[in-house]
Prior knowledge:
By secondary structure, the chain is α/β, with parallel strands linked by helices. The chain folds into 2 domains: 2-198, Rossmann fold (3-Layer(aba) Sandwich), CATH 3.40.50; 204-289, Methionyl-tRNA Fmet Formyltransferase, Chain A, domain 2, CATH 3.10.25.10. 26% of the residues lie in helices and 24% in strands. The protein has helices at residues 10-25, 49-54, 66-72, 91-96, 117-123, 159-182, 215-224, and strands at residues 2-6, 29-35, 59-61, 79-82, 100-105, 113-114, 128-135, 145-152, 198-199, 232-236, 239-243, 246-248, 262-265, 269-273, 279-283. Strands 3-2-1-4-5-7-8 form a 7-stranded mixed β-sheet, sandwiched between helices. Strands 12-15-14-13 form a 4-stranded antiparallel β-sheet, with helices on one face.
Amino acid sequence: MNVAFIGCVETSHAAFKQxxxxxxxxxxxxxxxxTKSKSVFNSDYASLAExxxxxxxxxxxxxxxxxxxxxxxxxxxxxxFCIGWSHIIPSKILHHVKKAAIGFHPAxxxxxxxxxxxxxALALGLTETxxxxxxxxxxxxxxxxxxxxxxxxxxxxxxxxxxxxxxLVIPQxxxxxxxxxxxxxxxxxxxVETGSNYWRKRSAIDGAIDWRMHAxxxxxxxxxxxxxxxxxxxxxGGETYTVTCATHHNEMVALNFEPGKILSTxxxxxxVKCSGTSSLWLENIDGSKFITGEYI
Length: 296
């Protein structure tokens, strides 16, 4: 089977590396890679070119949509994998693929289609997500499911923890899919539209901490935007502070204290009042820059 691949982030790297193993074993033939030489957009960017170069895989560095046609239309492609890619694949390319054009989305489809699935899952306090492979069509993330593995989310999971869980299951799924198409045992399951939704694009304002939120919600926001993402932020005296770690304060604090009041500090922590009787410890913060009793 001839296989082409499109991607440029860590999930792409995990999948492409597994496909290269099957290429070396002779189970598939990787005929093309479309990727990026760098990315200012993807904080989880990963280079695939070195892996492709080692085995002589033809590589195209994406600039615009004409690159799809230049790289793919002159080739017989049985399966196209598109993993970790923020651009829409033209329908002309999808129709060129003989067996399956397969996309990837780290959410439990048909729910939670759309943007920033790992960030939203943590920010909203979900207890599970999934690693989902599906047949690509013109509507984003809506094609029949080829394979899906549920992933549990713990309250202690930060973005990197959840991301790593996804990276662990991707190679297993890739091998399962390759085998399934090799022996014609794959039976894609149409997504049920009932209960489906699309998550919107996030912007910088979504990462700003509002101390009027409950401490649990702020904690979820902080872990959602931690590495490899840019971090949650707040302002103090015109200076922007980035928070990547926090812990719960298990005791109730006075209801009549206003949100954003600093309750106490240590050398590396700041204790802040949130909504109601909740509060939160911000970790890895220079406590000397904060004074008990002031507001942020």
